[in-house]
Amino acid sequence: MKKEVTIVGAGLVGSLLSIGFARRGYKVKVFERRPDMRKAKGEAGRSINLALSDRGLLALERVGMAEEIKKIAIPMHGRFIHNQDGTNAFQPYGKQGQFINSVSRSALNMKMMDLAEKEGIGIYFEQACTGIDWIQNKVTFGPRNVSSEFELLFAADGAFSAARLQYQLQHDKFNYAQEYIDCGYKELHIPPGTGGTFQLEKNALHIWPRTEYMLIALPNLDGSFTCTLFFPFEGPVSFASLHTEEKVNSFFKEVFPDTITLIPDLSKQFFNNPTSSLVTVRCYPWIDKDRFAMIGDAAHAIVPFFGQGMNCGFEDCRILDELIDTYKEDWEKILPAYQVLRKTDADAIAEMALNNFTEMREKT
Ligand code: FAD
Fold first, then answer.
1. Which ranges of the chain would DSSP assign to H, the alpha helix?
2. 224-269 tens-digit pLDDT
3. Which of 80, 238, 278, 309 is deepest in the core (most CB within 10 A)?
4. Atom of ligand 1 nearest to the CA of 218
């Protein structure tokens, strides 16, 4: 019977996973590459938000966190469409009462880390996984080359997982593919109005669909909105073509006219904020015997157009937890069942997420 769990990555999925294990009485150690975001002011202050759906909430409920998280979430009851001619349309998400939630990524992560520590979990920051010794069951972390023995190891270190790379380097018949799309994304910020008011409809996910590209915005608790521009990297209308302040301002004025007054420092933000890429990662197997598994983006990174990456990672944690009950902590049975169950769903959502880009930018 295993008693100790080592997790690489204290992101959204690693933190949730750690809490599930602690509740079962396992000794849990989490190693995180970044500094503690609760102390690093710059990072924590960024209002990047995510859509949290029932899929994710169900997993949070299993560890008793759902109510706590709902307090920092804003329900979004539908899509609010902004057309180029200035007209708008509201499209409800399903039947009355159904909604998804906008939640701050950093607030969620920090809350989960707080809760993990309350459960007695040790989170070790600035420890980047650099090697795994599969013979001696040891994982090494830089920059100080500290080694830690593991009984059960989880790779929860995201789309570019170092633990997965260690697995890939030393395991035969590991299938791996990563695929970038031609569009990237840039985040932009709509500040709150006077007195902290919302300058757009609060309880909605805003979309400016423009066929080849789109802008979206999700609300934050302080009255601001985080916008994301999904846009081609290259071509006549692209990040490459908008290379002067004048071009950015005139493009937004023409294509997203109602944002001009909402984002006062548009061109400054446009050139200061990074342009990031979007990748799908498919790989298999996800496990090694009864001692190692990938989870969350490390196993299945998807593009964000369905708003389901984190939700699926949370679902991995819930399904794994259910399997621990089903197989009464027999890890030789739990891990194979976990990867078979989750791989099918992960492949399906990866495909649906890619298709939903067309849906959102062309068909809404
Ligand atoms: P991550 O969040 O990437 O966390 C991995 C952690 O591992 C990080 O803390 C990292 O610092 C750490 N780490 C990395 N390397 C190492 C190492 N070598 N050693 C130790 N630690 C390491 N999902 C949704 O459900 N809803 C949404 O609305 C949504 N919107 C999105 C919008 C965008 C623009 C993007 C890019 C993604 C979006 N996602 C969304 C997806 C979501 O962000 C991811 O699915 C989710 O963050 C995955 O969580 P994770 O814990 O597996 O990985």
1. 12-23, 41-45, 54-62, 66-70, 105-118, 162-170, 245-255, 266-272, 297-300, 309-326, 331-358
2. 999 999 999 999 999 999 999 999 999 999 999 999 999 989 999 9
3. 309
4. 28
For residues 193 and 216, give the distance between their C-alpha atoms in angstroms, rounded to a whole number. Answer: 18
Is it the case that residue 41 has pLDDT exceeding 90?
no
Say whether pLDDT at 331 is over 60.
Answer: yes
Paired strand residues for 249: none
Ligand 1 atom index nearest CA of 12: 51
Q: Which residue has the tokens 């002067």?
A: 244
Residues with CB under 6 A from ligand 1: 8-14, 31-34, 50-51, 128-129, 156-158, 162, 185, 228, 296-298, 304, 307-311, 313
The residue among 66 and 42 whose pLDDT is bigger is: 66
What's the CA-to-centroid distance between 354 and ligand 1, angstroms? 18
216-225 residue pLDDT tens: 999 999 999 9
State which of 104, 229, 310, 317 you would mutate to test the pocket of ligand 1, scoring each by most atoms of that ligand within 8 A of its C-beta.
Answer: 310
3-class SS of residue 185: strand
Tokens of 338: 């976990």
In degrees, to the nearest 5, what angle opens at C-alpha 159 toward C-alphas 225 and 152? 120
Give the count of alpha carbons within 13 A of 175, CB side only: 6
pTM greater than 0.85: yes
